[in-house]
């Protein structure tokens, strides 16, 4: 169904992602940008709490489609400051494990100032 594409002719991925993910067939789920708002409407005050809240939201959308983190093929993360990149990567790897989706990280302003990040994703499942 999917194959990771990390050619030896370019520098290896720096960790937690693949240069390319080839997908053949299957069902595709496009997950809108998830914000760090919990079900009760609360937004954690710190970056780690917000990052975990976003990944929990993504996990719930995946579960609703009969999928899990292992089905992720593309993740785009929007951070509000470059200093968040290292912590973001560590939390992502802790939350999704050894999954290596194609990955883009962008520094940008979020729609609400209390949001420190937003993450959108694409997942694929056989059948």
Tell me, what's the shape? globular
Could you state the order of secondary-structure elements as H and E? Answer: EEEHEHEE
Mean pLDDT: 94
- Compute the number of helices: 2
CATH topology: 60s Ribosomal Protein L30, Chain: A
Gross CATH architecture: 2-Layer Sandwich
Uncertain segments are none
- Count of folded domains: 1
Please indicate the percent range of residues in DSSP E strands (runs of 2 or more).
Answer: 25-35%
Largest sheet: 4 strands, mixed
Task: Please specify the SSE layout and strand pairing.
Blueprint: E1 2-5, E2 20-23, E3 27-34, H1 47-64, E4 72-79, H2 85-96, E5 102-107, E6 117-125
Parallel strand pairs: 4-5
Antiparallel strand pairs: 1-2, 3-6, 4-6
Helix pairs in contact: 1-2
What does this structure look like?
- By secondary structure, the protein is of the alpha+beta class.
- Helix content is 24%, strand content 31%.
- The protein has one domain (28-125): RutC-like (60s Ribosomal Protein L30, Chain: A), CATH 3.30.1330.
- The strands form 2 sheets. Strands 3-6-4-5 form a 4-stranded mixed beta sheet.
- Strand 4 (72-79), helix 2 and strand 5 form a beta-alpha-beta unit.
- Helix 1 (47-64) packs parallel to helix 2.
- The longest helix is centred in the middle third of the chain and has 18 residues, at 47-64.
């Amino acid at each position: 169904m999917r194959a990771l594409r990390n050619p030896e002719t370019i520098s290896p991925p720096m960790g937690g992602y693949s240069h390319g993910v080839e997908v053949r067939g299957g069902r595709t789920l496009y997950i809108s940008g998830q914000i760090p708002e919990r079900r009760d409407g609360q937004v954690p005050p710190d970056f780690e709490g917000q990052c975990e809240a976003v990944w929990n939201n993504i996990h719930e959308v995946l579960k609703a489609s009969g999928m899990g983190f292992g089905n992720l093929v593309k993740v785009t993360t929007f951070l509000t400051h470059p200093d968040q990149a290292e912590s973001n990567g560590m939390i992502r790897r802790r939350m999704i494990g050894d999954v290596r989706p194609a990955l883009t990280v962008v520094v940008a302003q979020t729609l609400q100032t209390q949001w420190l990040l937003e993450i959108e994703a694409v997942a694929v499942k056989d059948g």
